[in-house]
Amino acid sequence: MPETRAFAPQFVSGRHRDEAAALGMWVFIATEVLLFGALILGYFVYRHLHPAGFAAASSRTDLVIGTANTAILLTSSFAVAWAVEAFSAETRKFCATLLACAIGLGIAFLVLKSFEYRSEYREHLVPGIDFKFDPVHVDGAQLFFLFYFVATGLHALHMMIGIAVLGVMALLINRTPSARHRTALHSAALYWHFVDVVWIFLFALVYLPGRAA
Amino acid sequence: MWRQWIPFWHPGISPHGGDVDLLFSGLLVVSSLVLGLLFFLLALFCVRYRASNPIDRGHQTSKSWHWEVSWTAASLICFLALFVWGASIYFQIFRTPPEELSVFVVAKQWMWKVQHTGGQSEINALHIPVNRPIRLVMASQDVIHSFFIPALRVKHDVVPGRYQDLEITAQVPGHYHLFCAEYCGTKHSGMTGEIVAMEAADYAAWLASQTPSSPLAQEGGSLFRELGCSGCHGIGSKVRAPLLEGVYGKPVPLADGSVVTADDKYIRDSILLPRSQIAAGYEPLMPSFQGKIDEEQLLRLIAYIKSLGGHGS
Amino acid sequence: MTDANYLNAEYSLRSWFFTTDHKRIAILYFASLILFFFIGGAAATAIRIELATPQADLVSSDMYNRLFTMHGIIMVWFFLIPSIPNTLGNFIVPLMIGARDLAFPRLNLLSWYLFMLGGTVTLFTVLAGGIDTGWTFYTPFSTLYSNSYVAVAVTGVFISGFSSILTGLNFIVTIHRLRAPGLTWYRLPLFIWSLYATSIILVLATPVLAMTLVLIAVERLLGVGIFDPAIGGDPLLFQHLFWFYSHPAVYIMILPGMGVINELISCFSRKAVFGYKFVAWASLAIAAVGFLVWGHHMFVSGQSLLASLVFSFMSFVVAVPSAIKVFNWTATLHKGSIHFDAPMLYALAFIGLFTIGGLTGLFLACLAYDVHATDTYFVVAHFHYIMVGGMVTAYFGGLHYWWPKMTGRLYSEYWARTAAVLIFFGFNLTFFPQFVLGAEGMPRRYHVYPPEFQVWNVLSSGGATILAVAYLLPLFYLGYSLFFGARAPANPWNAPGLEWQTPSPPPEHNFDQQPIVTRPPYQYSPDFKAEPQNA
C-alpha cells in the first residue's frame, strides 16, 4: 500500500480515533488530579495541625517570583489556546510560532523557578540538606518546605514534559500539518492547561498563607 | 446480667471479653447459616440440574427484580444489625472507667518497658491486680508497635510521637500472652511478654518485693531540675513562665482562645512542641526538648508534674 | 495445516517484543506473570516450612522478614493486580467487544515494558539483599529504621503503578469507544463490566499510591520527611494514603475474578446470568463504595472512634453488592443444564472460597471483633481466601476457559479437573487453620511463635504442600497441550460470546468481518445451543 491509513485499524474513521484520543487524555488528567490530590490532601492535613508554622514558612517564599511565574504560565496557556484555534493548513506558521511562544514562556518559568530554588537554598530552607528556621515554627515550616519542594518539583517535571510535547507538536505542525495533528495538538493543549491549573492551586497554597492582612 | 441466660455464654477474662466472644459466636452462627444455605443450594442445583439429568427445566424465573430486592434488603438489614452490635462493644472497649491505676508502657525495638508509678519497672512483663481498671499510658520510642493481649480481647497500636491511653481490666488471675501485633522489624516476633494478673493482696506483696529505685515522680523531680525546667517554671524564677503546681487535669486557656485540659498528652506536647499550644498570657519562649529527652524521661517528668498537687485540689 | 493466526504470523523475537497486537502482549504478560507467581510462591513455601515449628530453624528473623515482604510485594503488584486484567483482559476484551485491538496498542506495549522494568527493579532488591518492611511499607519503620533496600523496592512498585494506570486508561477508552455496532452497554458480557469497574479504580487509586511512594522515597533519601513524628509529621497520614490505594486495590484484584466467574457459570449451566443488570451495577457499586472503606484497616491505630464507626459502616455496605453477586450466581444454576468441565469446577471452587472470604470479612468489619482479630492470622486467612481462593482460582478458571482460544489447543480435561479439586482442598487445608490461629490470637508476621499454636501451623504447612503441587500441575498439562494437545475448534464450549465466533487462535486482525451485535449476551436457547450475539 503506497498510502498509509490515517488511523489505526481498530478505528473506523479519523473522527473515531480523535474521540478515543480525547477520552484517553481526559482519563489521564483524572489520574493526574489524583496524583496531585494526594499531595495536596497531605498539605491540608499538616496545615491544619501546624497553622502557625505553615504561615511563617509561607511568608519566606518569594511572592514576586511566584506571581511573575503565575502570569507567565497564564500567558503561555493563552498562547497554546490560541494555537489550537489557529490550527489550519494556511496558518501553520503562525500556529507553530504561538507554540514556540508558549515553550519560551515555559522555559522562562523554569528559569525563574530555579532562581527561586537557589535563593531558598542560600536561605537554608531545604529540609534534609540544609534547614535552619526560627525554632518557634521549625517543625511546621520544615513540613511546609518538604511539601513545597515535592509539589513544585513534581510540577516542574510536568512542565518539562509539557515543553517537550509542545516542541514536538510545533515541529510537526511547522512541517506538514494534517488532520491527525489537530487531535494531538488538542491533547497537548489539554495537558498544558492542566499543568497550568495545578500551578494556580500551588500558587495559592504556597505563597498566600500567612500573607493575609 | 441478662447475658448469663444465653447458652454457652461465658464471662471472659476482661469486662468486655465475654461480649466480644458472644459477638464472635453470633458472627459464626450467621456465617454458618449463610454458608450452609449457599452450599446446600449449590449442591442441590449441581445434582438436580446436572446436564445428564432429564428434568423439566421450563418456567425459568425471568422477572428477577423481586428476588434481587429481597436478598439485597435481607443482607443489608443483617449487616446493619452486625454493625450496630460490633460498634456498641467497640465503644465499651475504649471507654474510660473511673478509679484507674496508671501504668506507663514504653515500646521500643524490641521490648515492652513498663513503669509503675511507685518506681517499679519491668521488661516484657506487666503485673496487674485483678478487677481493677488499669490505665496504660503508652508511648513508642521508635516505630509503630501494637499492644495486644489476646486473652483480654484488647489491642491498640502505639504510634511514635503521641501518647496512647488504653484501659485494661483482668477479672481472673493468671498469666496471659502479651504480643506486639504491628510489624516492627527484625525481632518483631520476639517482642512478646506476659501479663500477670494477681489478687490485690498478691499484687501488693509483689509491688513491695520489687526494689523501686525511687518513685517515678521523685525521679521526675530531679530530672526537672537537671534539665533546667525549674529555672523558669520554679517558684521565684525571673522568667515569666506558667507555674505548674496544680495544673494537671485542669483546663488551660490558650493564646488562640481555645481551652485544653492539661493531661498527659498536653504536657508531653508542651515539652516537645512548646510553641504549638501557648498558654494564654505567656510569651512563646520555651525551647523544644525534642530529641533531648527520651520517652522514659518524659513520663517521669509527667509523673512529677502530676504529683504537684494536681489531683483533688 | 492451520490457517494464518496471530501466533504463526511471524516467529522472530522482534515480532514478539515490539508487537502491538493485544493478543501477543497478553501472552507476554502471561509468561512474565508465571515467573513472578513462582518467585512469590517460592517465598511462601519457605515461610510455610519455617512456620512448621515454633522456633527459628530454617532462616533468621531478618531473612524471614524479607521473605514475607517479598512474597507480599511480588504477589500483590506483580501477580494479582496485573493477572486477569493484563492477560485474560488484554486478550479477550477486544475479542469480546468485536474490536480489532485496544484503543492504544502502543501504550499497551509500553505498559508491559513498564511492568517488566518495575519487576526487574523489584527483583534487583531481592538480589541486593531484600527489603524487610512488609508490603505495607508502614512509616516510620520503612523510612527511618529499616536497613534494607526500601527506596529501590518502592521505585519498582512505583514504575509498575504506571503500567497499571496505562492499562486502566486503555480499557476505559476501549470499552467506551470500540464496541462493535449494536453492542450497547447492556449487551456487554459481564466480564467487560467488571473490567470497566476495575479500570476506574486503577486510574483513580494508583496515582495516590504513586504519590505516597514518592513521599517515602523522599523521606528515605533526605532522612527527614513528611511522616516523621520527630518534626511533627503523622505516621497515620501514611496509613490513610496507603490504604486509600490499597483497599481499592483489593477490588482491583477481585472484580476481574468475579467477571470471569459470570462467563464460566453461565456457559457451563447453559443459561443467562441471573439478574444481569444487578450484577453489572454491583461491580460499579463495589468500585465506588470501595473508595470509602480504607479506614477499616486502622480501627486500632489511633484514628478517632467516630472515623472507625463510619468506616465500619461503609465496610458492611460494600459487602452488599458482593453478596448480590454470590446470590445471582447461585440463582443462575437453578434450572440450568450444568456441565462439570474444568473451568466450571474452578468457578464453583471460587464461589465457595470467595464466600468464606467475604463472610470472614464481616467479622473484620465488625469493630469490636476487629480489635481482637486485626493484625492476626485471622486477617491473613481472610485476605488469602479472597485473593488466592477467590482471585487466583478465578484466574485459573478463566485460563482454562479461554486456553483453547488463546493457544488453539485443548488440554487434558482429566488433569485439569484433578488440579481444580486439589487446589480447592489444598487451599482450605492451608488457610482454614489460619482462621483458628487468628481467633486464638497469633499475630501475623511472626517468625517464632508460642508452642501452643503449632498444631494449626503444621496443618497449614501440610495443606500448603498440596497447594504447591496443585499449582504446579497446570504448568505441566497446559505446557504439554501447547505442543501435543488436540487442535481446538473455534467454539469448543458452544458459547455465544463474540470471542468464540472467530477461529482459535484468532487471526491477527481478530475478525474477518466486523461483527454486528443483535442480541444480549448469554443467549443459550432451550435446547442449550448458544445463539451467537452477532448472528
From TrEMBL, chain A:
One of its GO terms (molecular function) is cytochrome-c oxidase activity. The keyword Membrane applies. GO terms for cellular component: plasma membrane. It is a multi-pass membrane protein. It comes from the Bacteria. Belongs to the cytochrome c oxidase subunit 3 family. GO terms for biological process: aerobic electron transport chain. Pfam families: COX3. Its main location: membrane. Keywords: Membrane, Transmembrane, Transmembrane helix. InterPro entries: Cyt_c/ubiquinol_Oxase_su3, Cyt_c_oxidase-like_su3, Cyt_c_oxidase_su3-like_sf, Cyt_c_oxidase_su3_a-hlx. Residues 23-211 form the Heme-copper oxidase subunit III family profile domain. It is found in: Cell membrane; Membrane. The chain crosses the membrane at residues 21-44, 64-84, 96-115, 145-173, 185-208. It comes from Bradyrhizobium cytisi. This is Cytochrome c oxidase subunit 3 family protein.
From TrEMBL, chain B:
The chain crosses the membrane at residues 22-47, 68-91. Residues 215-309 form the Cytochrome c domain. It comes from the Bacteria. It is a multi-pass membrane protein. It catalyses: 4 Fe(II)-[cytochrome c] + O2 + 8 H(+)(in) = 4 Fe(III)-[cytochrome c] + 2 H2O + 4 H(+)(out). Residues 98-209 form the Cytochrome oxidase subunit II copper A binding domain. PROSITE patterns: COX2 (PS00078), COX2_CUA (PS50857), CYTC (PS51007). It is an enzyme of class 7 (translocase). Coiled coil: none annotated. PANTHER family: CYTOCHROME C OXIDASE SUBUNIT 2 (PTHR22888:SF9), CYTOCHROME C OXIDASE, SUBUNIT II (PTHR22888). Belongs to the cytochrome c oxidase subunit 2 family. This is cytochrome-c oxidase. The lineage of its organism: Bacteria, Pseudomonadati, Pseudomonadota, Alphaproteobacteria, Hyphomicrobiales.
From TrEMBL, chain C:
Keywords: Cell membrane, Copper, Electron transport, Heme, Iron, Membrane, Metal-binding, Oxidoreductase, Respiratory chain, Translocase, Transmembrane, Transmembrane helix, Transport. Pathway: Energy metabolism; oxidative phosphorylation. InterPro entries: Cyt_c_oxase-like_su1_dom (IPR023616), Cyt_c_oxase-like_su1_sf (IPR036927), Cyt_C_Oxase_1 (IPR000883), Cyt_c_Oxase_su1_BS (IPR023615), Cyt_c_oxidase_su1_bac (IPR014241). Pfam families: COX1. Its main location: membrane. Cytochrome c oxidase is the component of the respiratory chain that catalyzes the reduction of oxygen to water. Subunits 1-3 form the functional core of the enzyme complex. CO I is the catalytic subunit of the enzyme. Electrons originating in cytochrome c are transferred via the copper A center of subunit 2 and heme A of subunit 1 to the bimetallic center formed by heme A3 and copper B. This is Cytochrome c oxidase subunit 1. It comes from Bradyrhizobium cytisi.
